[in-house]
Amino acid sequence: MARTFVWPSLLFAALVAVTGCAEKITTPGRCPALCSNNDVQLADTLLTTADSADATARGYVLMNEATFLAASSLDSLRSVVLLRFSPLDSFWVQSATAADTVLVASPPDSVLCVLQVGFRDTTVHPRLVFYRLPARFDTTMTYAQAQAFFADSLVVDTAAVPDTGNMTFRMPTTLVAAPADSGVVSLGIKVIADAPTAVGLASGHSGSTSPALSYFVHGQAPRDTLKRSLSVAPTFAAFAQAPAPGAAPPGELAIGGVPSAHTILHLALPKVAVDSAGIVRATLILTLVRPVVAFPHDSFYVQAYALLRDHGPKSVLYPDTSVTGVAKVNDGQAGTVQVDIARILRLWGRTAGDSLPHVIELVVYGEGNHFGEVDVKGRSGGVGAPQLRVTYVKRYEYGVP
Amino acid sequence: MRYCAGLLIVAVVAARASDLVAQESVFGIRGLGFLDRPVSARSAGMGGGEAIFDGSSALSPASLAAWHGLAGWAVAAGSQRSVDVGTGTTSLTSMRFPIFGFAASIGSRLVVGISASDYLNRNWDVQRTDTVTPRDSAVPVTDRTRSIGGVTDIRFAAAYRVSSRIALGVGLHVLSGAATTAVERDFPNDSAYSTFAQVSETDYHGLGVSLGLFVTPVPRVLFGASARFNGRLSAQNPSASARVRLPTELGVGIYLAALDGVTVASTVTHANWSVAAADLQAAGQAPSRDVWGVAIGVDVALLKMFGQVTPVRAGYRWRQLPFLVGTDALSEHGISGGISFGMAGGRANLDVALEGGSRTAGALTERFTTMLVGISIFP
Predict the structure, then answer these.
(1) Which domain holds residue B294?
(2) Residues of chain B with C-beta less than 8 angstroms from the C-beta of A44
(3) What is the CATH number of the domain that holds B30?
């Protein structure tokens, strides 16, 4: 009995093992005989008046919040760096446990300037020229106002920007003001080179490495055999630029720059453009008013965000950062900037996003990290107004039965 | 909102380079699907010749009269197919459980039972590559359309042994099922385009009744007849609905115990599927046609294995299938063999059948080999 039962059971098990429960998809067929009745149909629509309202607001990342300091001699952007360092400490603590302090002798033995170079154009051999600024210079001064202090008579030093690595170089000790004269050191930096160029220096803001003056000092007598290195960071680090960023001219929209600008677009969309499933590509086409301004030969990204709440310049961005659009732009780019916003349109078509405002906010990715700016035409820009090109699959008709 | 240039339907710029399909049968994509056969492994071993008399098949409700006491049965079928479409031959495999059921006697003459079997199989998968030019530049795409599901025939039936020579049967058939169809278009990973996907589910409902009659005019000879009258099959998805007339299915058979231990059986069936043609054409499908089927088989119970009689079976069948492939008619034939093993002291049977054959429509040929394993228990 048991023997009778066992081997047929093994046969059944073998059948299941051999055939499995899965379909193997390997067979070539032939259309139309062995294909479904309907095809997937792709359609393409250009919405020329999708931009129903737009606006630009500036000031999201301020000059003194940017992670870089731009020294530029570009025709499209001229800028100088403005630094103000704290006074050198008058003593140092030799032994903390014994409250043993040493008074600093003046002047210092030597001074090193330490700069982290974020961007440079090695093809034009840039040099930085350091100018002595008034200790208490006006931190709100414009590029034009600053020019009065960038006279040859005020040059402190010059230094070549190395092709790689950061800059550390000795400066004359004469730049240090006597403690009686506040001890504050203010410097202006401009760039010179074989051709117009720009150099980006780390500002010390938002986690970047700060410029520093490293003083090598010794103690006052009788402890003048003791030596020490004391580093001082700037209390103010910014740059003055021309043209100065401001409100976008009428009919224009700005994205990026420093202080950074955001552009908000209200989109009027037909139903076909808000379909969670059918949209395979959606391109927002922005027409540039002028070539893109950026560090020479550099590129950056324009990013589009959906909004959770539309409160104008203080709108709340949709928190899912995967639902964004992005476009890479290059220094000097002209023509158009094309941002793919298909993910945003699909979000608006889904249940989770159908109550969201049909508004997108355009920003520069990593704003405050570079001075790249995109200036485009607004809805009053005629043929150059923002357009939306949507490629979608027409709703598939399954057919019944 | 102003549209510029309206809608531009993107042109197909290249012939479909490569098409891939997979389904229960490659022909299942046509019409209502692939029409299944509600036969047990035992009947399949005889080519289906005995199906109208087989209590574990669902062709005639009168066949329930074959059971005495309590009975249950189930079948698993593994299939391997190769398809020749003129441009190449490839293989597919699948696994199904085409029928299972349960029956019980009430008194000495009445047997009631319920069974569930595949009626229409709508498992298919089509994948094809193409090139489109959505923005004046060619982009390769892969379109995949899949359907999973089908229509199940749930039969509530009763058979009554009027006398030792006559049995009657009646059945109520509930057709129920669903098919989930998914459409996808994939673009290359480095493309600027995103994948498109759309899913829809179609529900199916229908009713039918069947009648069966067995008559034994002389010893060793049994005649059987069945008729099944179907209503309309309702199909509904979120965007459309349709009702398709289903055929009246007729069957006759003879069961001849010519010699001791040797049985020959044959079944002939006919279904007027042409009644569905108008509804199918209205839905954009190819029309259907009336179909015939013939099956004949032999069961030889002379072999002994492990000390007990082990029936060995063989058979041949041919049938037409109702749904046209383009303009070509589809037909199927197969040769089968089988064997049966008694288990549990005669309270269970293990039936194994192996069937090979082909389906042909014009230049398209699908060859298949199916192994069916059925277990019947009658405690």
Answers:
(1) 19-377
(2) 7-8, 10, 134-135
(3) 2.40.160.60
